[in-house]
C-alpha cells in the first residue's frame, strides 16, 4: 500500500489517541515548530546559514553568544570566513590547491569548497569574536539544495572546542614533562656512572697489576687481591645494572637465556657475601647440590638477584643468627628449581609481606640503622620475571623470613667441563730487535695515566707518550706520529670526539687508529663513539687483557697503513 494513503480506519494525520485529524495535524505542526525553534535558539551550538554566495542569512542565538555579534549586524552583511582566523583560511585554500591542483581563492570559497561538491566537511578553526578575542571551534559545513538539486546556500554548525584543546594542551605538557624528566634521569644515571667508574678504574686496574706483578703475591695477598677484584668487578656490574634500570622499566632490557650453573653462581655469591656476614657474626650455610643443576637465565642478572637476597638476609638478621641457602626441585611447575634464602631475623607481619615489592617502601625501616633505598626488591622482582621465573616470600614474626626464587631447569651446556677456564696465558715478550712502537694516551686524570703507564711498561715493544688534554694530544700526534692513540672522551677544552674529528681531517694523522677509553659506558655513548670513527671503544674500569687485545688489533692495522714519510721518535 502506498505510504501516502492512510490505512482504513486510521486518521489522515496521526495524532494522540482520541484526537481528530485536524487537531493532530495542528499539534504535529506546533511540535515541529517548537523543535525548530529550540534548535535555532540553542545557546550551545552556533548555527549559521548562508546563501549560495556565502553571505550570512541566519545567525542563531548560539552564534550570537559565542561570537558577540547581534544577528542584525551580520545578516546580509558578512561571510563566515570574515570571522575566522585569516591565516587558517589561507592555509586551507593552499592545502586544497595542492590536493586538487586547482587554484582556490582564500575566503569562504576555501571553507565551502568540499561541501559544494556534496562532501560534508568537518574541520577545526579559530573563531574571532567581535571584541577581538578568539576561541578554537569545530565546525561542520553542509551544502543546502532545493527540491531541484540547485545550490541555495550553506549550513555551518559549530561548537566551542576550548575545553578539549585545553585538555590536549595539558596532556601534551604532561607528556613533555615526563619525557624531559626521563631524559634528565638518563643524563643523571650516565653522569653518575662516569663518576663511579673513574675511581673504580684505579682500584681494579692497580689490583690487576699487583695480582700479576713481580714478585708474585704471597698466598694471603693473593686471596686479598682476589676479594678486591671480585668485589670491584661486581660493583662494576651493579653500576651497569643502574644504567639498565630505564630499560627494565620500559621493557627493553636485553637478557640472555643461557644455561647457568647453580653451583658456580652460588659459590661466587658466597665468596661475595661471607666477609660481610662474618663482620656481623652471621653464620652462612649453603646446602650442597646432589647433582649439577643448570637453569635458563642471564648469569649476571641471576647473580645480582641472589646477592641482593643474601645481603638483605644478612642486613636484617640478628647478631649471631644464620642465613641458609637451599635448592630443591618443585613438582608444580615441573622441571623447576626453587632457591630459598632463609634468615633468622625478626620476621614480617602479613601487612608487611603484602607491601614487599612496592617501590621505595622500606616496611618501616626508614628510621632504622640500616641504610637502603627501597628499590632493591622491586628491581629483583622485575629481573626474575624478565628471566621467566617467579619470586616470593613467607615469614613468621620472631622466627625469620624465607625469600625464594623459582627458575626453569635446562640441560647442561656442551662445554660445561670448560666452565672453570684458566687465566689468560702470559703474553710473550717481543723478539730481540723488534722496533719500539709508540702509544699516545690522551688522559687528564693522573691516576688513569699512571695505571696505563704501568700496564704498558710490561710490554717491551711499546713506549707510552702521555698528553693531559686534547690540544696537546693533537700536537703530539702530528709531531711524533704514534702507531696507536688511546683517547679519553671527557677532556678539558676539546672533547675526545672533537679531537678525533681534527685528527681525521689532518692528512698527517688521519691514518692513526684511535681507541676510545672512557668511563662513558651508556650504550648510546658507545654507539656515538663508534659512529664518530673510533677504531674501538673500551670502557673503564680497564680490563687489562681486553686492552692488550685492542692494542694488538690496532697495531696490526697500523702495520698495513702507510703513514707520512717522515716520522720523529718521541723524546
TrEMBL record:
Keywords: Kinase, Phosphoprotein, Transferase. Coiled coil: none annotated. InterPro entries: CheY-like_superfamily, HATPase_C_sf, HATPase_dom, His_kinase_dom, HisK_dim/P_dom, HisK_dim/P_sf, PAC, PAS. Its EC number is 2.7.13.3. It is found in: Cell inner membrane. It is a multi-pass membrane protein. It comes from the Bacteria. Its main location: membrane. Residues 438-555 form the Response regulatory domain. Gene3D superfamilies: 1.10.287.130, 3.40.50.2300, Histidine kinase-like ATPase, C-terminal domain (3.30.565.10), PAS domain (3.30.450.20). GO terms for molecular function: histidine phosphotransfer kinase activity; phosphorelay sensor kinase activity. Residues 121-173 form the PAC domain. SMART domains: HATPase_c, HisKA, PAC, PAS, REC. The keyword Kinase applies. Residues 1-24 are annotated as: Disordered. Residues 39-103 form the PAS domain. The modification 4-aspartylphosphate is found at residue 488. It catalyses: ATP + protein L-histidine = ADP + protein N-phospho-L-histidine. This is histidine kinase. It comes from Hydrogenophaga taeniospiralis CCUG 15921. The lineage of its organism: Bacteria, Pseudomonadati, Pseudomonadota, Betaproteobacteria, Burkholderiales.
Amino acid at each position: 500500500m502506498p505510504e501516502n494513503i492512510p490505512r482504513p480506519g486510521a486518521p489522515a494525520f496521526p495524532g494522540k489517541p482520541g484526537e481528530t485529524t485536524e487537531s493532530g495535524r495542528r499539534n504535529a505542526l506546533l511540535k515541529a515548530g517548537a523543535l525548530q525553534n529550540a534548535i535555532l535558539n540553542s545557546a550551545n551550538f552556533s548555527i549559521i546559514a548562508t546563501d549560495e554566495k556565502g553571505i550570512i542569512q541566519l545567525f542563531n542565538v548560539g552564534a550570537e553568544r559565542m561570537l558577540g555579534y547581534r544577528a542584525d549586524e551580520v545578516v546580509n552583511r558578512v561571510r563566515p570566513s570574515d570571522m575566522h582566523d585569516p591565516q587558517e583560511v589561507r592555509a586551507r585554500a593552499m592545502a586544497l590547491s595542492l590536493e586538487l591542483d586547482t587554484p582556490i581563492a582564500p575566503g569562504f570559497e576555501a571553507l565551502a569548497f568540499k561541501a559544494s561538491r556534496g562532501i560534508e566537511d568537518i574541520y577545526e578553526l579559530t573563531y574571532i569574536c567581535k571584541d577581538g578575542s578568539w576561541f578554537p571551534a569545530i565546525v561542520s559545513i553542509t551544502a543546502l539544495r532545493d527540491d531541484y538539486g540547485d545550490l541555495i546556500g550553506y549550513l555551518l554548525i559549530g561548537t566551542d572546542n576550548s575545553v578539549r584543546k585545553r585538555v590536549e594542551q595539558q596532556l601534551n605538557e604532561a607528556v613533555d614533562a615526563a619525557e624531559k624528566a626521563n631524559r634528565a634521569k638518563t643524563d643523571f644515571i650516565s653522569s653518575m656512572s662516569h663518576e663511579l667508574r673513574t675511581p673504580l678504574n684505579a682500584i681494579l686496574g692497580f689490583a690487576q697489576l699487583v695480582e700479576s706483578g713481580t714478585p708474585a703475591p704471597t698466598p694471603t695477598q693473593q686471596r686479598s687481591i682476589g676479594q678486591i677484584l671480585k668485589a670491584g668487578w661486581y660493583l662494576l656490574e651493579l653500576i651497569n645494572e643502574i644504567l639498565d634500570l630505564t630499560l627494565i622499566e620500559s621493557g627493553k632490557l636485553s637478557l640472555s637465556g643461557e644455561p647457568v650453573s647453580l653451583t658456580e653462581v652460588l659459590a661466587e655469591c658466597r665468596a661475595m657475601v661471607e666477609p660481610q656476614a662474618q663482620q656481623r657474626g652471621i653464620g652462612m650455610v649453603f646446602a650442597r647440590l646432589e647433582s649439577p643443576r643448570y637453569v635458563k637465565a642471564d648469569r649476571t642478572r641471576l647473580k645480582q638477584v641472589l646477592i641482593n637476597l643474601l645481603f638483605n638476609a644478612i642486613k636484617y638478621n640478628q647478631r649471631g643468627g644464620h642465613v641458609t641457602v637451599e635448592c630443591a626441585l618443585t613438582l608444580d611447575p615441573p622441571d623447576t628449581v626453587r632457591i630459598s634464602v632463609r634468615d633468622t631475623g625478626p620476621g614480617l607481619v602479613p601487612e608487611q609481606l603484602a607491601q614487599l615489592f612496592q617501590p621505595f617502601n622500606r616496611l618501616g625501616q626508614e628510621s632504622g640503622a640500616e641504610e637502603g633505598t627501597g628499590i632493591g626488591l622491586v628491581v629483583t622482582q622485575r629481573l626474575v620475571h624478565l628471566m621467566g621465573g617467579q619470586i616470593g616470600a613467607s615469614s613468621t614474626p620472631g622466627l625469620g623470613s624465607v625469600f625464594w626464587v623459582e627458575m626453569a631447569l635446562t640441560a647442561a651446556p656442551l662445554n660445561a667441563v670448560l666452565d672453570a677456564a684458566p687465566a689468560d696465558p702470559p703474553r710473550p715478550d717481543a723478539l730481540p730487535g723488534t722496533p719500539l712502537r709508540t702509544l699516545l694516551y690522551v688522559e687528564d686524570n693522573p691516576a688513569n695515566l699512571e695505571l696505563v703507564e704501568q700496564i704498558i711498561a710490561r710490554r717491551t715493544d711499546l713506549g707510552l707518550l702521555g698528553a693531559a688534554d686534547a690540544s696537546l694530544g693533537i700536537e703530539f700526534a702530528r709531531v711524533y706520529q704514534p702507531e696507536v692513540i688511546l683517547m679519553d672522551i671527557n677532556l678539558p677544552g676539546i672533547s675526545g670526539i672533537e679531537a678525533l674529528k681534527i685528527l681525521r681531517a689532518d692528512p698527517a694523522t688521519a691514518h692513526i687508529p684511535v681507541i676510545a677509553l672512557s668511563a662513558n659506558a651508556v650504550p648510546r655513548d658507545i654507539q656515538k663513539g663508534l659512529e664518530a670513527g673510533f677504531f674501538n671503544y673500551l670502557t673503564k674500569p680497564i680490563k687489562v687483557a681486553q686492552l692488550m687485545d685492542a692494542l694488538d688489533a690496532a697495531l696490526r692495522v697500523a702495520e698495513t697503513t702507510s703513514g707520512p714519510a717522515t716520522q720523529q721518535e718521541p723524546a
